[in-house]
Amino acid sequence: MYVCGRCVMYLQSRLLCVKAQHVHIIKLWHLPESTTRIHTALLHHQSTQKDRWRSQTWTRFFSDHRSRITEQEIPDHAVEPVMNSELQQVSSASGPVPADHTSIDLDALSCPSPFEEISDEDAIQIFVPPNLSPTTFTLRDYVDKSETLTNLLHLGVNLSKLEERPNVGSMLVRLDFEKDVVPRLLFLKDLGVQDFQLGPILTKNPFLLTESLENLQARVSYLKSKKFTSESVAAMVSKAPYLLNFSVKRLDNRLGFFQQQLGLSAHKTRDVVTRLPRLLCGSLEPVKENLKVCELEFGFQRNEIQHIATAVPKVLTANKKKLTQIFDFVHNTMGVPHFLITKFPQVLNAKFLRIRERHLFLEYLGRAHYEPNHPSYISLERLVALPDETFCSEVALTSLDDFERFQKTV
Known about the structure:
Elements: H1 5-16, E1 24-25, E2 42-43, H2 49-67, H3 84-91, H4 120-124, H5 140-143, H6 147-155, H7 159-162, H8 168-174, H9 177-191, H10 195-204, H11 213-225, H12 230-239, H13 248-262, H14 266-275, H15 285-297, H16 302-311, H17 320-333, H18 338-343, H19 352-365, H20 380-384, H21 388-396, H22 400-407
Antiparallel strand pairs: 1-2
């Protein structure tokens, strides 16, 4: 029979941790008229609560086995105390021990003290790893040491926003100001971007500093070939800083998409894109969805959709839920027909709360008339575009205090 090395280690750790010098091990030798042999049982003196629980477990274990044996008294010579030295003999029984059952003497492992003196030869052999670069979560620690960060800060770049974006801080630290930053700043200046616009542009799109000058120039040349003026390109870059990060092929595809889907001429397409240049940068899915909503759900004709998109390009990228909410209230609750909404499509881009409060106030006063042939006709432009004071004095014909008191009841 081989003794498992883990079992031996466990028994040693349990026995050696007890301060008592002797631990009695009961050996139950051959019992008369029984085929069952019980090898060992541990009885610990001065044990803790946990050890006493284990002792009770062992006692129940022996009681279960004794119940299966005929009721005979165990002779006194059957119990024999054994010392720790005999336990070592049991663990080192004769016969080969498998490699995975090798026991380890934990007491033989030395634990050097940190206060132990060592020789000069041993001290020389100690390897000290090189200092690691400091880890930081803010660019503030590098501003005084980096010329690039210092000059970007002077240009008005918001470093606190850039450090929140992943990998942007490390990218800026690695840039050389004279080699990487200055040429692109001069490119933007030549394009027509004003000095006060450089900081906000680089804050929104710091990756512009990593684009090659050849690619930037190629994209600007393409826009100019489509008859975009230099002023228009500069304005588009200021409104949509990511515009110059897209390839010429993508820009061409976007311009073709809007011209085809809206059925606009080249001149009107340029006008729409110049006023809302993010149409060339963002996803096309919201645009496609809003076009379908305007046609299928709202019931606008194709020419009406063209007029709405030309007058208010933001309708193409507006939130579908908000757009539906406004149209439903204006068309179904206020009773405004399609042609009047098309005549003043800015109402679809207004705040829903303003439309609702003003309509309810006019309805309360009995002045909610939106039919052009009515003597007290109120246009959507006057309903939405005027400030509160002018709306109250010229449209509602009441005081601002009355309107504010009414707003508290809504």
